[in-house]
Write a structure and sequence with these properties.
This protein is of the alpha/beta class and 248 residues long. The protein has two domains: 192 residues, Alpha-Beta Complex (Spore Coat Polysaccharide Biosynthesis Protein SpsA, Chain A), CATH 3.90.550; 39 residues, no CATH class.
Length: 248
């Protein structure tokens, strides 16, 4: 196998709070560098392309360029609106002679070597492989409208304080959703290179949320293998705290 890895790093980190989540320290290195390093250890990986934010490419290159270059990674400009734009551009930057393409979130630095090995092994026999974790919590579909509790606000404040203020409104439950057959999908997602290139060239890409959904629109089968709960995606500051604990 000759695998080209695409690291999606063009997001705006709008839900993270102050600062760029990919620049946050994770055991002495930025989050993004930790993510890239997970793939540099693999002999199957022959190329790494990082899709950066198009509105801040100069700053992105200043922050990460030297370290990514040292690790043999190439930086390309990602998309502005949807994820697939970044992946489409990064695919064009990969060598023609690779056999497989792996796509991974730049904000998933805790991906373990065991998980990568499991995905790569499955990709040798299946053209599209993604990791998934079984859903453990009860799932409920809720309505769009926000409703308030009937309790008097003054009484709620007296009894519950600030907690009461936060808990006296919410959205009503519409139904309980069965967990049977549901999995939470992670990355890296690995595909036969020719298949992924064909899918990106021939299907309607708008609205796809991951690369597996692009393959699904082509009508091809996607294989789900066991993921890893520790392979979390850093979205909020609380996620960063968890990632630091996992890395320790």
């Amino acid at each position: 196998m000759r695998i080209g890895v695409i690291i999606a790093a063009a997001g705006k980190s709008s839900r993270f709070g102050a600062g760029d989540k990919l620049s946050q320290d994770l055991g002495g290195r930025p989050v993004l560098l930790r993510t890239v390093e997970a793939f540099t250890r693999r002999d199957e990986v022959v190329a790494i392309v990082v899709a950066g934010p198009p509105d801040d490419m100069e700053g992105f290159r200043a922050r990460f360029g030297p370290a990514l270059g040292f690790n043999g990674a190439k930086i390309v400009e990602g998309g502005r609106a949807e994820r697939w734009e970044s992946i489409a551009r990064a695919i064009q930057a990969l060598p023609d002679d690779i056999t497989h393409i792996a796509v991974h979130d730049g904000a998933r630095p805790c991906v373990g070597n065991d998980l990568i090995g499991r995905i790569f092994a499955a990709a040798e026999v299946a053209p599209a492989v993604i990791p998934g974790v079984s859903v453990r919590d009860t799932l409920k579909r809720v309505g769009d409208a926000t409703v308030s509790a009937a309790a008097d606000d003054a009484i709620a404040d007296f009894i519950l304080g600030d907690v009461g203020k936060a808990s006296t409104s919410g959205r009503p439950v519409v139904e309980t959703v069965s967990r049977e057959g549901l999995v939470a999908i992670q990355t890296p997602q690995v595909f036969d290179a020719a298949l992924l290139r064909r899918a990106y060239a021939s299907v309607e890409l708008a609205g796809t949320t991951d690369d597996a959904s692009v393959i699904e629109r082509l009508g091809e089968t996607v294989l789900v293998v066991e993921g890893d709960p520790r392979n979390l995606k850093i979205t909020t500051e609380e996620d960063l705290v968890l990632a630091r604990a996992i890395m320790r």
